Amino acid sequence: MATVIQFKRSSTQSDVPVISDLSLGELAVNTYHGRFYTEKNDGSAAIVEVGSNPSTLTINDAITFPTSDGTNGQILETNGSGTLSFTNAPSFQQNVFEYSITSNTTVISGTDDNSATLSYTAGLEAVFLNGIRLVAGDDYTQTNSSTITLTANAVNGDIVQVVAITQSANLVQGQRTSVALTATTADQVLSSNGVANKAIKYVITATHATAGTHAAEVLLINDGSNAYFVQYGDAFSDASMFTLSSDVNSGNMRLLVTPINTNTSFDTFQIRMS
Fold first, then answer.
1. How is 177-233 classified by DSSP, letter by letter?
2. Together in a domain, 179 and 260
3. Is residue 1 situated within a structural domain?
4. pLDDT digits (tens, 9 = 90+) for 85-136
5. Which of 175, 177, 143, 176 has the alpha carbon at shortest distance from 162?
6. E strand or H helix at 240
7. Residues 107 and 67 in one domain
8. Residues sharing a CB contact under 8 Å with residue 180, sequence separation 6 or more, in sequence order
9. Of the four listed, 25, 28, 34, 235, which is most buried by Cβ atoms within 10 Å?
10. Would you state the pLDDT for residue 268?
11. Burial readout 192-202 (b: 16 or more C-beta within 10 A, e: otherwise)
């Protein structure tokens, strides 16, 4: 008769051995769940579960997974300390506004073909002309939350669509824009966003054919009536190439720039949290 080798075992539901039950490296099995356990010691003795049917799951002693499933549509989120949990995914939806153009115009606003009134958050929109996506800052300006101003006329027969994204709070958005400023006029608009964007971080790079490069970071906030900013991390190849200011105008928080030299190009990357 074949010899039967049996491990220490328990048939009790949820029964787990303790350190005193096992020697280092010894195995035990809970036959109710089909789970194996052993003792480890990395300077501190502990009972760990082994096998493919664990009640808990920790990877590299650092990442701990939930012990039960989340609800439909939830995603995993980390607390930054190695513990994962299920949470609701950020919610968002999009509204599409369509305008059939009957005469030359650069202004897109008001009610569209479906009697819906244009409303969007600057930076959370996409504008299309006859199916071709336009570039913010080059092809159009986010004038305010209810108006898009095209750089060139839309003409009779054109179709302009504005896709507006509505999102949950705390979803971070990044956007890059580029503009070439030919004059040194004071307080030219470098960026304009609705005051609902309470805080925006910018990385600004100015370049000039002979003056070189000037880069800086900016943190811009508003209280609904006034805007405030701090500029830091300035680095330039020769000398400072611009000064900044800010304001709130027509419901928009604006970052304004005064170039030192004519024909200066500005590349701006902004990160904002609604």
1. EEEEE-S--SSEEEEEEETT--EEEEEEEEEETTTEEEEEEEEEEE-SS-EEEEEEE
2. yes
3. no
4. 887 766 667 788 999 999 999 999 999 999 999 999 888 888 999 989 899 8
5. 143
6. none
7. no
8. 263, 264, 265, 266
9. 28
10. 94
11. bbbbbbeebeb
Single out the residue in 149, 167, 185 at which a domain terminates.
167
Q: What is the pLDDT of residues 1-60, one digit of tens each?
A: 678 888 888 999 888 899 889 888 888 888 888 888 898 888 888 888 886 666 666 666
User: Of 163, 125, 169, 128, which is closest to residue 144 (Cα–Cα)?
Assistant: 125
Q: Nearest-CA neighbor of 216 among 196, 194, 232?
A: 232
* Co-location of 185 and 132 in the same domain: no
Range of the domain at 254: 172-273
| Domain annotation covers residue 71 | yes
Identity (one letter) of the amino acid at 101? I
Q: Classify residue 159: in a domain, yes or no.
A: yes
